[in-house]
Each structure stands twice: as structure tokens, then as C-alpha cells.
Amino acid sequence: PEGPGILVYYHGAIPIDYLYFLSRLFLWKKRLCLSVADHFVFRLPGLKLLLEVTGVMPGTREECLIALKNGHLVSVSPGGVREALFSDESYQLMWGNRKGFAQVALDAKVTKTAVQALISKHQTIPGSIWKALLERFDKRRKSD
Fold it and tell me: What is the spatial distance between Cα 111 and Cα 61, in angstroms, rounded to a whole number?
């Protein structure tokens, strides 16, 4: 979207597709997309400044609303690192009471975009990250 919006994406073990998206968004549209991260990431030694400079922010509802009202794109990955690192092919997303990003989108009255196509095309939760990478690159080589 041209104005503010929430982008919902699947984190994966290594969210390389999301990083490519951020790069292309900046190169093509000259826009930044702020990324929501769990508060624990900001406690890791040496990372807080890097995260702030690269547009990663704690995911409080208030901070997300402020960013959206200032015209930013904000991305969120439900489950994030926890579900990316501690799941396997039989894993089901645990929503629990985590619906904050949906409420933020409603409160801010912004565009909501789910990157579902990227999940089915590129992301599977691997039993082995090396197997997943090999399958991804092997498929790409065959389709080129």
C-alpha cells in the first residue's frame, strides 16, 4: 500500500524471503517497513542499537499504532522466533490470546496484507534446515 499498512508474514527458521521483500521495497519504492520483534530480542547484548537503526521495534500496541498513524508500514509475524525455531512439520500455529496485531489494524484503519503466497511457495517448516535449503535451491534450479 502507498500509505500505512500492516504486513503479516510467516517467520520461518530463516526469514530470507522477508529480508528480500524489505530490500526490494526499499529499492523500488524507497519505503521502509518497520518490523515488530518480541521484547526479549532487545535484551540481547549489543543488539538493541542495531535493531533500532534497522527499523525493528518492540511490538506493543501503542508503538504499532503510533507508527501506523505516522504513515509507516509495520510487519508482524505471529509466533515469530518461538514457532520458527521450536516447531516441525506437524506443528500448528498457537494463537492463544495473541490477536493484538489484528486489533491494531482495526484501530488504525489501515490496509492489512497477508503474505500467504510466500508461505506456500517458499516456506515449509523443516525437520532439518539443511534439507529445506537444499529442496528450495534444487526446486529453483529445476524450474529455471
Answer: 16
Residues designated as active site: 11
First-residue to last-residue Cα distance in the chain: 30
- 60 close to 17: Cβ distance less than 8 angstroms: no
DSSP letters for 108-119: HT-EEEE-HHHH
Question: How many C-alpha atoms does 113 have within 13 Å on its Cβ side?
Answer: 15
The pLDDT profile of the chain, 144 residues, written as one tens digit per residue, is 688 888 887 776 677 878 888 899 899 999 999 998 888 888 888 888 888 888 899 878 889 899 999 999 998 887 666 665 656 666 665 555 656 777 787 788 876 555 555 555 555 555 666 676 677 676 655 554
Domain ranges of the chain: 5-143
Half-sphere exposure of 63 (CA within 13 A, CB side): 16
